Amino acid sequence: MSGMHDAKTxxxxxxxxxxxxxxxxxxxxxxxxxxxxxxTVLRKIAFAIETANERRLVPVFLGDMFDRPVEEDExxxxxxxxxxxxxxxxxxxxxxxxxxxxxxxTDGDSLAVLxxxxxxxxxxHSGAVETFRIGEKxxxxxxxxxxxxxxxxARPFFGQxxxxxxxxxxxVAFENPYPGSMAPFAIAGCRMxxxxxxxxxxxxxxxxxxxxxxxxxxxxxxxxxxxxxxAVWSLTVDxxxxxxxxxHEPAIFDLTGKLIDAIxxxxxxxxxxxxxxxxxxxxxxxVSLLKADSAMxxxxxxxxxxxxxxxxxxxxxxxxxxxxxxxxxELHATVVANAA
Length: 340
Hints:
The protein has helices spanning 37-55, 74-85, 110-116, 282-290, 305-317, 322-339, and strands at residues 11-13, 15-19, 57-61, 92-93, 121-122, 127-134, 137-144, 163-168, 192-195, 202-207, 210-214, 231-236, 241-245. It has 340 residues and is α/β, with parallel strands linked by helices. The strands form two sheets. A seven-stranded mixed sheet has the order 1-6-7-8-9-11-10, with no helix packed on it. A six-stranded mixed sheet has the order 5-4-3-2-12-13, with helices on one face. Helix 3 links the parallel strand 4 (92-93) and strand 5 (121-122). The two termini are 37 Å apart.
């Protein structure tokens, strides 16, 4: 993919509107109280498109358009297509971990189907996406999907531009580094990196001439995001970068029972490693958690997230080792998938 531009065909706009992970799904996350979670997410996406239309901003989705690689609810997908069709200009989208079944986007994923409608330009591979004229400036947009490596030099992907903005969808160590996180780094020629994946807003980090920023998602899924204000972020021709809050219900979570501190991506509680030799007890530990009353106080959830909170809390309390954690969490994911 090339970022070379032709002044006659280059799209013009007043700026960009960055839209954090929507996680559109027909399944309601366990502690949310929406009567219809899918319609809640669609209203947020519609608000984003309406805002972009009013301000002549290019809509830029940061990844995880869907909560599952294959969304089976045709009604939701049809309504999403109608919303995207109302956009004044073609929206862009990075690819998140929830959008893919394999290591890259494939034809069997719902996001790929959406791209084939011609209503969304999806960056399936790391590289240049498009070049825009924003006021008197020429701005290049590049992207690196989840699971791929961002470049250390963005300049070879573009011709003559005034600035480059890069999209990522990664675990980035904005605050305290944690296992598997990527430290922000300087990208030659890149003025700003806008990251998806991590659901809470993070303070920007400047590394060399590259500013890294994580706006947070537009759909709160876990209770650690209870104070997060869902917003889209506009970057305009005058250089202003600011949030535009999305109408939402503040008290959307059912807070019944015990809660753990954090379960959003990049917010996991940290604990010391330990528990050698415990891997053989993974299945029995999982079964005992299934029988725990506290996880059942809210009744059966659609996505198993409340049970996951209980599992995570017990693993932290028992300082379980990495092997045991992996086995139990994999078993939980398998049970939830089979029940879907």
